[in-house]
Amino acid sequence: MLKPLSEKQQNPAIMPSIFSLELSDLENWLSEIKEPKFRAAQIYNWLYEKRVTSFEEMTNLPKGLREKLEETYHIHPMKEVARQESSDGTIKFLFELQDGYSIETVLMRHDYGNSVCVTTQVGCRLGCTFCASTLGGLKRNLLAGEIVSQVLQVQRALDGTEERVSSIVIMGIGEPFDNYDGLIKFLKVVNHDKGLNIGARHITVSTSGIVPYIYKFADEGMQINFAVSLHAPNTEIRSKLMPVNRMYPMNELMDSIRYYIKKTGRRVSFEYGLFGGVNDQVEHAEELADLIKSVKCHVNLIPVNYVPERDYVRTPKNQIFKFLETLKKRGVNATLRREQGHDIDAACGQLRAKERQEETR
Ligand code: SAH
Q1: Which of 84, 95, 186, 231 has the smallest CB count inside 10 Å?
Q2: pLDDT tens digits, one per residue of 48-71
Q3: Dihedral of alpha carbons 325, 327, 328, 333, sign
Q4: What is the CATH number of the domain that holds 38?
Q5: Which positions does UniProt annotate for S-adenosyl-L-methionine binding (predicted)?
């Protein structure tokens, strides 16, 4: 079992975020301080409809309540430290958190709408051998509100244009199931019709395969799209690529996925990175097809993205198509992921947590 996080990683010494609160949490807090419950909906309206950045602006609330909010919760936007725009329209934001750490968030433009790729942790402790996000280890979990704020801030960057955020992928820095409670709160807030009102089917969470939480997530009964980073056709190759597989081997992972499908009636997506010479041969595609043939799923192939500290090589284009065709011939529903934001290091596996706090000390 994954070791519990340290107190500091779990509960950073920062002010709680107002955006971590579900509507019912806000109602409970209001009743604790002897304020009427209906104020919760008013506050939600200011936060998610009007998208104000201070409690002062919530002019239909009594002054005393605004002061109480100010003393108790953090509402200020994260500082935008940098913004890079790709030639394909993708934008990567670098945001600074209350305690000085920085995280990356990506806005992707598709013909069907805009999606935001959010980060769930400062760094990551899983050590996948191909990924930049894990290079500095894990600093801490993000608060649910810090994940919500990423979506809000990207939406603010679009305010004033016709564009809006229409979907969310939880595929930024970190392992969402290693911040399970934060993730679930985040999902409840963005999905709520008085919150950001983003439909569950427009939200995708991706995990590296923390098996106990796959069971737990299946039991939540949410209609969220679910993706698993598989990356290998067998447990030996997977353990070489992803140390998490030594803790939760492939047969246990596949059992949990079968449980998820049975429980939710939904299909899963498998992310399969093609790492030159490691897992990208026709025989790997055949083995993969056999592994998942009885699983209701879709496979997303991702050619490896360049990470300077890692020495994986790209699979040649003709080999990628051979791999794809082999899967299809064997009845697997598979596509090649459209690549975005390469020129600004915003593609899968290229996001990093920045340690500004430690650099400046
Ligand atoms: N920790 C979660 C969420 C990250 S999602 C997870 O593992 O699923 C980011 C996706 O990009 C994952 O599928 C991850 O395995 C993949 N990835 C990481 N580094 C990559 C790289 N260098 N090239 C291509 N994909 C990569």
Answers
A1: 84
A2: 999 999 999 999 999 999 999 999
A3: negative
A4: 1.10.150.530
A5: 174-175, 206, 229-231, 305
